[in-house]
Amino acid sequence: MTELIRQAKRRDPQLGADLEAEINVLSGRRAFGLNFERHRPEAVELPNRPVRKGDKVRILPARGSAEAGDQRLWRVNRLEKRGTDYVGHLCLVGTSEPEQRVVPLADLVVVAEFRDHVFPGLASTGTVTRGADKPYHTVINGENFHVLEALTYTHRGKIDVIYIDPPYNTGAHDWKYNNNYVDGEDLYRHSKWLAFMERRLKLAQQLLNPDDSVLIVTIDEKEYLRLGLLLEQTFVEANIQMISTVINPAGAGRSTEFARTDEYIFFVRLGRASVTPEQRSEERRAVTWDTLRRSDIASRRGTAKGGTGQFYPFYVNTTTHRIEAIGDPLPHGTPREQAPKREGCIAVFPVRPDGTEMNWGITAGPARERLEKGYLRVGKAKPKEPQQYVISYLTGGIIADIDAGKVEVSGRASDGSVIAHYVIGREVMPTTHWNRPSHDAQRGGTAVIKALMPDRRFPFPKSLYAVEDSLLYFVKNKPNAIILDFFAGSGTTAHAVMRLNRQDGGRRQCISVTNNEVAEIEQKRLKNQGLRPGDPDWEQWGICEYITKPRIRAAITGVATTGTNVPGEYKFNAEFPMADGFDENAAFFTLTYETPISVAHNHAFERIAPLLWMRAGASGRQIDKISERGWDSTESYGILFDLDQITPFSEAVRKVESLQVAYVVTDDERRYQSVVRRLPSQVETVRLYESYLSNFRITYGE
Question: In sequence order, what E strands does 309-385 have?
Fold first, then answer.
């Protein structure tokens, strides 16, 4: 075989190289397991990216045309100004016979193949701020493969949970491969889907915390078998389970098949990640009331241990059996019969059945406070005994549990005392089949979307509560968890994270990634109007701009896209008006594509700045401009632009205990190390822009 390839290369070098590449692929296939064609690398069009010399581009169809246009790739050899406009001199890529054209730049769109070098940045497109000093949730509009590559710089090994709801590959034109919709007639649709997923899962693997994290993937019966094998081959060391969940109890109608009611969720657990048990079979245990009268004889009235302030009367109404008042302490030697009288009441003192006068367990002041709060109660009448009523009280520990919410107070008894119980739940592990009303996609998904955005529609949204439950099993005990969703769709995952934060005061943050794809039927209408991707009037109808960002904004503010308060209430785990919104922050970005030269020479700082902010925790102010004083710092990070300003910079860094990262802009490794020595050891130091550029060289295998 090797000799035949050598001969082929002699006659036709390109043919020989292609044959060798294909044979290498075949020889590298598994004897067992999942084998599939990985196809040529995906490519994505970048309509907002300026055309530069050396770019690969496609020629767009004429405005107003419904045609797909020329799908061939061209290389831009040079740019030329003609009049007020520019044209590109193009050469066709991948052909033995060169073909050249000159085309106006306005009719070109840049294309990035997934094997190309990409140096990402972010452009801010707005914020919502209601969460004080909480970290920001981030929404990134961009091709998710490239955004995942960007996140290898900001969040490598830091993600606690990835939740994704990828295309189900139903054959219904619901996803694209290489800018073309994949339908049921495509003979390679399964292998295209696997190649599409594998590339993204391998990047996701770099982002997950290898010691304790989980990947959650939803799917239906079209691809669940292949997905399971792909996950096993990608996450070799992980513990993988699949559960089924009912999302449509009525069933999706099918003329010749079973009506589908459920779908599947894979949980891929890394390291020590485990499922948090859930509480069921609540048991209510009444709080214990202790007798207020002291029991040890050494604390009887008149002794040094007994003191002088704990022998006083409780005035109990003989008809209602309620404590009406608490009297003042009697001095030692004063008979209790001389205590002031109160009409309709009997004075109850701490006296043993044998007549020994004791003391109460607390003084009169705290007793009055407990009486007002319902923490004292009267027992059964004992008219023949010296102490005709038993007086009981709640101890300080139980009162503290009431204040902390560990004890539930459900009302008051007839004597004014509280009715209180400890609520104890038996912990059980969740099962692998979920049939919960809250997971109904219509009730928990479509209805929620309609309330937040009554003027917009989104097909097949996940139930908000189903996503919330899935996350809760892994972030319940992680109030600062970072969750990523790189098929964000309508933004349900971010919404669920905000609900979890409200329930326990957490500071979890969600990174939501989605493109701005316009629905196929909407594209036809826009093309007929002479619009193209990249035009503002086109982009406003994309999923990120029209659905994801507005949904998250409405959820936080409590104001619907129509300008009115969001109607209705959230249900299930936490019920409250949707108009209340959330005390959360969100920042919106669009992915940009930079050149390594502009980055290295500090000319792309405004687009790199959001990545630095995200790497430092996405909290507080973002440093988005190069400071004239040569440095800048916030509560979470600082940037030293001018190494001559190390003294004031290091002083500022030392004053802020919460500062986590210090970025140092320099090409000189020796000077960088001298700066590091002057900064606190607990602060992570990062060299710019070497760390950024080398990160993406590593990503591409250089």
Answer: 314-317, 323-326, 345-348, 376-381
